[in-house]
Design goal:
The protein has 374 residues and is of the alpha/beta class. The chain contains 11 helices and 10 strands. It binds 6-O-phosphono-beta-D-fructofuranose (F6P). Belongs to the phosphofructokinase type A (PFKA) family.
């Protein structure tokens, strides 16, 4: 019999509850107990200070308080967010904080901890695990899909669908008003979400930090020319996706980069149109609008892929614990679930997190970029 702790850490995403549910279900089958640590590693601190009771997580065999025929429906995997909360995003700088977290783990007498997190959380939790001698297994989650060594993290697929749908929806208002719609997509320093959703949602231009680290005069002129050509050839509206990681003309991070680009494009196209003529004008002068999709990208009913990924990752994590094979990152590679030793991969993950880059290219074969350009 094992006592397993589970926590979610860092930015939430769809599929966290599906992982928690699968862990509790599979652990129960094995006769193990699962303890949900609320509010990330902060839960350990509150627990040692007696401010919080940490209870065993159980799935009710005969359902929740749902009415009528819905009695017994297992809703958890359909819900976005994290029932445990996902607060701790900072590094426990103070020694006392670290000590309290470690004491919390010990006081709960856990045999192992499943941490669900992205590369930032991994960086922090791995250090805590080393200091506290924890038996750790990590399940990767993030809409950014930027955890190195795994092709997919839980949450990415749902976010990709959400952004794709938003682009589709925006197409019609853009078309009706003959506008250029500039859409800012999350991803932190990575462009996976923008590239995938941009292609699936039919964007005309996709700017990602891996290919366009910052806006330049050349980028603007090229886009104006492209838009003008579009307008002459067949249509008067366009959709532009810009990943939030692309920096402004001054190479600074810009939280409103879509707005900046929309303004710059309008200004540049008007200027080129008056000085250079028809090549930059299209049929008439362009009008632009910016849209920041924001945290809606982290919401929504988890997609079937994310629910399945959550489930197979949870099973793998518990199997690793069953084999007493600890300090592993569960990963998705070539269509199957594997795991990697944290000790081996942490230097690279820490480097990615600190340098704000990921060695895994967004598009290793250049296939998607070619598709987008064709
Ligand atoms: O890492 C997930 C993510 O949604 C990024 O895409 C985004 O830059 C960031 O988190 C936003 O963080 P917060 O919720 O703290 O604003």
């Amino acid at each position: 019999k094992k006592r397993i702790g589970i926590l979610t850490s860092g930015g939430d995403c769809p599929g966290l509850n599906a992982i928690i549910r699968a862990v509790v279900k599979y652990a129960t089958l094995r006769g193990w107990e699962v303890y949900g640590i609320p509010r990330g590693t902060d839960g350990f601190i509150d627990f040692v200070h007696g401010k919080l009771n940490i209870e065993e997580l159980k799935l009710h065999p005969h359902g929740y308080d749902l009415p009528g025929v819905l009695q017994g429906l297992d809703v958890l995997q359909f819900m976005s967010g994290s029932v445990l909360g996902s607060l701790s995003r900072g590094n426990p700088q103070e020694d006392q904080v670290t000590q309290d977290i470690i004491k919390g783990y010990e006081a709960l007498e856990l045999d192992a901890l499943i941490a669900i997190g992205g590369d930032g959380s991994l960086d922090i939790i791995y250090d805590l695990a080393k200091k506290g001698n924890w038996n750790l297994v990590v399940i990767p989650k993030t809409i950014d899909n930027d955890v190195a060594f795994t092709e997919r993290s839980v949450g990415f697929d749902t976010a990709r669908n959400t952004v794709t749908q938003a682009l589709y929806d925006l197409t019609f208002t853009a078309a009706s008003h003959e506008r250029i719609m500039v859409v800012q997509v999350m991803g932190r320093d990575a462009g996976h979400l923008s590239l995938h959703a941009g292609i699936a949602g039919g964007a005309d231009c996709i700017l990602i930090p891996e290919l366009t680290p910052q806006l330049t005069e050349d980028t603007l002129v090229g886009m104006c020319e492209y838009i003008a050509q579009l307008r002459k050839d067949r249509r008067k509206f366009a959709l532009i996706v810009i990943a939030e990681g692309v920096k402004g003309l001054n190479a600074e991070k810009d939280p409103y980069i879509a707005e900046t680009l929309a303004d710059l494009l309008k200004e540049k196209s008007h200027q080129l149109c008056s000085t250079e003529g028809d090549r930059y004008c299209g049929l008439n002068q362009i009008d632009t609008r910016a849209m920041v999709l924001g945290h809606l990208q982290r919401c929504g009913v988890p997609s079937s892929f994310d629910r399945i990924l959550a489930t197979v990752f949870a099973i793998k994590a518990l199997d690793l614990i069953g084999e007493e094979c600890y300090n592993r990152l569960v990963i998705w590679q070539n269509g199957s679930v594997e795991s990697k030793s944290l000790e081996q991969i942490m230097p690279m993950i820490k480097w990615c997190h600190q340098e704000k880059t990921c060695p895994a290219p967004v598009d290793p074969e250049g296939f998607m970029v070619r598709t987008a350009l064709s």
